[in-house]
Amino acid sequence: MSLKSLLSDLVAKVTSGSFSTSFNALVEVSKHCRKDSAAVSEFCALGGISALLGLVEKPKYSDICLSILANCCLIDKAREEVIRRGGCRSIARILSCIEKESVRNRACRGLANVAMTSRGAKEIHSCKAVEHIVTFLTSPTSCESKVTALRAVRILANTPECRDDLVTFKAPAAAVKSLQNEALQKHAVQALASLTQSCSLECALQIKEADGFKILEELLQASDSAVLESAFATLVNLSVVGDVRPDLGAAQAISALIRQLTDYKLVKPSYGTLFSSLCRYSQESVNRVRIRESGGLPLLVQALADQSKKELWSCCVCAILQFRYDEPSLAVLWSLDLVPTLLVYIRDYTKDHKEDQHSMDSSPNEMEDQSSSAALGDANGIDDGCLELKSTVLGGSGEKDEDIASDIAGNKSPGSHQVELKVSTLDTGDESADQENNYECEMSEAKSEATDYGDVTEEALNEDGSSELSRYASKTTFCIHSPSYREIESQNSGPDVGGYCSDLGYHSNPVSPDQARRPVSPLPGALSPRSTDSGLWSPCSTPRCDSPVSVASPEPFRSFSPICSENDSDSEQPIPSYVKNIVESICRDIPKKREFIKRKRSSLCDDQPTKVSGHSRGADDDSLPSRAKRRRRRTLSESVTPAYKDSREMLLDGMFKILTVFTLLEMPEYKLGATGLFDGLVRYLYDVPSPLQRASQIMSKITSDLHSFEEIVCRGDVLKLIESMVACGLKGCKHCKQFRDLARHWLSNLTRVAESGYGSGVLAHGLLTQGKEIQNWCCLTIPYVVRDKSILRQLLLDCLALNTLLDLLEEGKGARDRMFRQAVDSLATLCTSISEKRSPLRTASKGASSASDACRLEAFAMDLQLQVDDGSKVTGNRHRLTEANDYFRTMLEGHFVEKDQNVVAFRCTRGTPLSVVIHFLHGCDFQTCAFMSGLSVNVQLDVLRLCDLMLLPGLQREIEVRVRQNLRLESACDVYSRALELGLTGLRKAALWFVLTEKTDSERQCECLCELVSGRQGGQVLDDIASLVRQNVYVNDSPSTT
To answer: Where in this protein does the record put region Disordered (predicted)?
Structure first.
């Protein structure tokens, strides 16, 4: 007989009406349907489920019918048939009415099997069967019955509606009680793991009050892997509730997590889930201490250094930020090389996002920008010509707050998707499969949105926040972290004592136990918690805290605050009237900044009525604010957080916040300059388009920090910065101008440190006691960061920095390597900074001459010819020459052969230089004679030689002045050589000083100095450089610019 025929006969017998026939048939059906899914499906198709439901509530049939139904409900088709025919209500009535344990046991198992689908669980919820299952669990029954009840609780807890019912009827406490029975531990802890999904405060408190934390502490050390996994799953879920995290930490939960993460051997929960749970504990100060003392900080740093754990970086950064007031923990993090680890990410980010940003800028304000930059360069002691630097005013620091607020990149960041990982259990089999524990991951998306106010807007919000609260009398939810409350706390507690960077964001417990000296409210005027997109936790969320989120989520953590509304709905409850009255009275008593501004603009008599009317409106008028006020609030809300380009930039901003913490401490042990951070941030700000503003703020702090100064100077970081400041060559490049603005600001900070007693001592120590490499870096850096001449004298002369600099020139003249070029640039910057502004040399001017006496030579008879080497002849008057010059008098009237010659051979010169001398001796001058004007430098140098030969000091002075006026790099070497040959010390040093201070590109300057130092006169050149520097550095003690 086929299975279908057999089952058909059995169904007919079940419905026959005879007890014995029906009961025997039910026994046969139970045998066939126990583990045969095909038989169950056929039985359903033949109407067997309907027949069973017709008999299940009859006491004689209940036991056998419930057994068959429970087995059949493991199949979806049978389960749907039971739900469709209302079988859940019948089973629930049996569970609540019949006292026989075996019947209740089968009824409980049947309901659990129905609840294996969400539809079945909702049906059980609607028929209010959850209460009876919890009652069955708490009743004195056998161990087998309790196992069945715990399984039902575990399955039902996978559905939010049923989980709420279970918590309402104290199922968590009942499960904790079952943990005390060793035979039930495995099933009870699995039920708890399911119950604590999206754990609510009520559920967590039930477990706590039933001493579940103490039992959980023991289970976290169990040897059974199934028990251990469920215990950690429960711990992970409970960790979401902030109110019980301190108690969990006291129950050694943190130590257990750290031990397991250090030697991870579990299958589930995953490593990332356990790690994110550990990070949650950093939100409470007492748990932060436990994390530090239990060795959890190395895990955070190791995760950041491990490329295979990138998905953990966001929650890791958030956790580290929570330690920003815990100085012992910061010391541990520093010793673990946290900053170098962050620097690796910064460099990788810079490498991946590097772009060529140079472009032409032909804006009409370009000339104005260049003049402003020139003024700024002079103020900072940086010569624009030497470095080819052109820039605008520094960083727009003069802008008003409201202008800056409107220019902050990005509006309110879009709601981020939160991926939630739920640790749950699900039955997939019959009674034999009840012992198995399975986890399923439900991926759910929840949008999170928080309001944040940047640092720029805090002042404006402080001014307007109090009156805004009184105007909005209908505001709904009141929270301790709400803008108005925090503003009041900030005003009452007084100004911040310093040491806190307001842009670090909000954290749930701002005061560390060892940091009582810091204010309770660390954000003066920051009227809202940080946005979750900034990588920090939101202090207030829905009453039910989702359990544990995916580590890849942009909002790694959420926490529950009991101060928030307990209503699950989205609607907000109105503020109690007594609360409004208290807040409004405090706001009226707080003096507002704008009231004092009014007093400056109007008389006291005019101001008093205005202020009184303003208080009256704040207390009685509930009308909406003015259009301008609404527009102002909208502007602030739209510019609360920067619009990040991607998740990597958001993570980078979090790392910058960590670095900001160390820059604010300014302690000797935190030498950020020694980590290479200076160079890494310079490359980031230069190479990455639209860099984060926080990076430049960190650079400002580092360059102002005394403890980082030595490392920055001794590592050559300043020289790398100078190289980055060199213009790209494109006219008006906006990128170059902006970067030079920042670089000048950093150099001015370094200058303030270098010219302090500490900074000059560091430089002197490096020059006198350190190795050759550090000495070289120090002497190359000094010209860029020291402007005070008294300090320069000590460093250059007493500490021999000048000798070291000249040695670099001499050693590198052959190779012309990078060190030689740096030495040339450094020397040029030094000479430019110490040079005095001199008025241009002018030749003696004569009155205007008529056209007839333009050249005096034409008035004389030409009776003498002087033939030079190039074959040309220069004519002159014999009498005039003998009368004007002793050289010609001796030659033409003495005992020489030239006395009787009309054509005299004149060797070792050329025609043009000799003609100049002849013109001069005939009375011509440079102002009136056309021939003598516009002479080339080479001709003037030949004239100087003739002046030395013929003893013409007057002409020599005139020519020397003109040579100085027409100096160029191309001819500077010839001028120096001729001046050295003729013994013209002043001209020689003037030519060399011109080379050192000329505003030109570094390459041409390098070539010219290399030619001078490499020549025969190289030693004299170095001596002249030393002499010029000594001479100028003693001229005036006050800093001067060119």
So the answer is: 355-375, 487-539, 601-639
Are 215 and 149 part of one and the same domain? no
Domain boundary (962, 981, 1004) is at 962
**Same domain for 3 and 110?**
yes
Report whether pLDDT(317) > 90: yes
Give CA–CA dist 579/978, Å, rounded. 92
Comparing 243-247, 338-342, 430-434, the range with the smallest average pLDDT is: 430-434
- Phi-psi label, residue 344: left if phi above 0, alpha if psi -120 to 50, beta otherwise: alpha
364 has a pLDDT exceeding 60? no
* Domain contains 429: no
- For the chain, how big is the Rg over CA atoms in Å? 45
Q: Of 127, 149, 169, which residue is a domain's last?
A: 169
When comparing pLDDT for 928 and 711, which is higher? 711
Same domain, residue pair 3 and 151: yes
Considering only the C-alpha atoms of the chain, give the largest distance between any 2 of them, rounded to a whole number of Å.
Answer: 169
CA 874/CA 887 separation, integer angstroms: 16
Do residues 159 and 38 share a domain?
Answer: yes
Rounded to whole angstroms, how far apart are CA atoms 576 and 582? Answer: 10
The pLDDT tens digits for 880-929 are 888 888 888 888 888 787 777 778 878 777 888 888 888 888 888 777 77
The total domain count for the chain is 4
Q: Encoding tokens for residue 204?
A: 């967590």
- The answer to whether residues 751 and 656 belong to one domain is yes
Query: Can you point out the beta strands (E) in 546-670?
Result: none
Between strands 873-876 and 864-867, the pairing is: antiparallel
Confidence of residue 870 (pLDDT cuts 50, 70, 90): confident
Q: CB under 8 Å to 793, separation ≥6 — which residues?
A: 1033, 1034
20 falls within a domain: yes
Quote the tokens at residue 68: 């068959």
> Do 663 and 748 share a domain, yes or no?
yes
- 15 in the same domain as 161: yes
Which distant-in-sequence residues (6+ apart) come within 8 Å of 949 by Cβ?
Answer: 887
Beta bridge partners of 867: 873, 905
Residues 300 and 341 in one domain: no
Q: What average pLDDT does the segment 819-828 reach?
A: 89
- The residue range of the domain holding 269 is 203-326
Q: How confident is the model at residue 575 (pLDDT cuts 50, 70, 90)?
A: low
pLDDT (0 to 100) of residue 442: 36
Q: What is the DSSP letter of 984?
A: -
Structure-block tokens of residue 779 = 């002497």
Spatial CB neighbours of 491, under 8 Å, sequence gap ≥ 6: 462, 590
Tell which wins on pLDDT, 246 or 626.
Answer: 246
> Residue 729: its pLDDT value, please?
67
Q: What is the DSSP string of 81-147?
A: HHHHTTHHHHHHHHHHH---HHHHHHHHHHHHHHTTSHHHHHHHHHTT-HHHHHHHHHSS--HHHHH
